[in-house]
Amino acid sequence: MKQVISMRIRAHDLPEGATGLFEATGCKLRVTDIEDFTVLNVHQVIVWLKFDAEDPLVMKVREYLKKHGVEPWGGEYTEYSDEDRQNARLLWMRPANDVEICAGFNYGTEYDLTNACPNCHAGAKQTSVLYVDNDEIATIRKHRAVQAWTREVLVDGGMRKKLVDAGITGISFGDVRARHENGKWSMVARDQILIEHSMPPMRGELSAKDEEYLCKVCRRGGRMSSPDKPYREEDLVGMKDFNLTWEWFGEFWAEDKEKRRSEKAPESKRPRHAQSHEHIPRRWREITRLDAGGHRAMKPRQHNLQSTRAIR
Ligand SMILES: [Zn+2]
What we know:
28% of the residues are buried. The strands form four sheets. The protein has a six-stranded mixed β-sheet with strand order 6-10-11-13-12-9. The chain is an alpha+beta fold and 312 residues long. The chain folds into two domains: 2-79, Alpha-Beta Plaits (2-Layer Sandwich); 95-310, no CATH class. Helix content is 20%, strand content 27%. The protein is built from eight helices and 15 strands. Bound molecules: zinc ion. Residues 117, 119-120, 122, 215, 217-218, 220 line the site of zinc ion.
């Protein structure tokens, strides 16, 4: 594990461009990418650099940029080695970082709310196969594993076989169906990973931002970033290879925010019948959970967004 500094520099704003930057500072060896393109007849060169946090070149580059009035973009982060990952007791996993599909309640997936929070519906238990938006099929096919905006995880046959052959504990698999615009459905050649065990609540103080994203009723949510030491040894008792977090890290819409969002939407675009998916604009479906057909709006499984895997 080491601290790394990433820098994005608009080299076309420098008097001698990227070449001048490299010659003056000797940072060419730190280049990870150079983007060279033209937008609206303006030639742009973006240089990406990566340094170890203690690298003396960082200061040199910053001074050079300051001299020429160019502000770099970037920041410091922790970079983990393969060895770090193998030795970690827990990993926070996402199937594909930049892809999220639409699935869940709006497409006909059913949930038991008996033990769910009446406000945010954390604790809702999925009781049917998972339905996904048929518009997502092309995206799903591109990935061996993909996750939904509502955090269900889908894997292809090869990935499923790997998990089964490895004897991974704490999971079972469920069918996936695509919901079409006309209300019909078809099978999807993917399995949903169903994860049974939830970790206890994370330890550590909540930040002011976390408080904003906590459910006012059940206090789940928050944790917009993972605390340093979220669990103690005793918290790991009963842990499986795949586990759910008690919280979530992602996009919880506090009730007032949800309301503000819905108020912004034109009346005519609001869905009135659960069955009439075709009346729900795609974008709207992506970002909201709105009351539909007499059902309460819900955020199924929002509390257990992340799966974690214990390394044995
Ligand atoms: Zn709640």
